């Protein structure tokens, strides 16, 4: 039984465009895409409340969503680090992302400046401010990921030879070193301010994003999953989720104006949670025979997730009145989930249709 399932995992699904995709990676994309929407909406609940049952539920839901970006990065590492590409191809990939960033930024700039503010007159100085701001940071907060992704793409020519030379112990060392020095010590220092380590020690270390980028490749290519480890990681994930929720409550009691210390992707609570989830997804899909129809559906939706991410902020803003209306008839948490599912569905429908255009499909 195990050998037949592993064989299925080894043979990717071929899409209509001829690209081969692993089903479990697309399942992670779909999960992470929904979590991005949750991350950008769920704070409407707990930010407007003091600790209560609803507040705790919303905070827990918030931390469920936090591994979203790290999961996307791990999937990118699993897909990109094993490729053989010339420098020209890498630069072309980066330029494609720059074009997407520029186009998306222009759309959001027009949306926020002229559509949301009806009657706002055009001024040329706003264009120069826009271009100056685009270099310094994202026009729309959610677009920060594109800057990060472009940086990871530019690092590919250096990281690809490295991942081929590394063994399992090397990966364990890199991930463990990062988790302890960069991800756990800040948590200890938070509660024991006297425990300080010089910042100079951290300068040569890789960032959390590069660490999970490598971890995605490592788990995809070199890790053999097992049910016992998957169960252990599931327990570990729930434990970390509970810890973040309870710790955030104590953070609130200390400073109700700024209590989201654990909303930092470099902390081990989030990076380890992401690794646990990635492993669990791989184990689940390796141990089950997925029908061709379901596999095709997952890959088709997974192929739309990047476009869904790009348009999600538009839809979240325009659909917000739906949430306020629903919250008048039901508990706010249930109203929020329905709202998020609708945002996901509209984004999926729009992206699926626009991807029918061959030129657009090359970019999203």
Name the shape in a single word.
globular
Uncertain runs are: 1-11
Strand coverage percent: under 5%
Count, helices: 16
Which secondary-structure class do the elements indicate?
mainly alpha
Mean pLDDT: 89
Output the radius of gyration. 21 Å
Q: What series of H and E elements makes up the topology?
A: HEEHHHHHHHHHHHHHHH
Q: What is the terminal separation in angstroms?
A: 37 Å
Task: Sketch the major β-sheet.
Answer: 2 strands, antiparallel
Helix content: over 70%
Strand order of the largest sheet: 1-2
Total strands: the figure is: 2
Can you walk me through this structure?
- With about 375 residues, the protein is mostly helical.
- The chain contains 16 helices and 2 strands.
- The chain has helices at about 1-10, 25-40, 45, 55-65, 70-80, 85-115, 125-135, 145-165, 170-190, 210-220, 225-255, 270-285, 290-300, 305-325, 330-355, 360; strands at about 15, 20.
- The chain has a two-stranded antiparallel sheet.
- β1 and β2 (about 20) form a beta hairpin.
- The protein is globular and about 60 Å long.
Features:
about 0% strand; about 375 residues; mainly alpha; 16 helices
List the helices and strands and how they pair.
Blueprint lengths: L1 H9 L2 E2 L5 E2 L1 H19 L1 H4 L6 H13 L2 H13 L6 H29 L8 H13 L7 H22 L2 H24 L16 H15 L4 H28 L13 H19 L5 H11 L2 H22 L5 H23 L3 H4 L3
Antiparallel strand pairs: 1-2
Helix pairs in contact: 2-4, 2-5, 2-12, 2-13, 2-14, 2-15, 4-11, 5-10, 5-12, 6-8, 8-10, 9-10, 9-12, 10-12, 11-12, 14-15
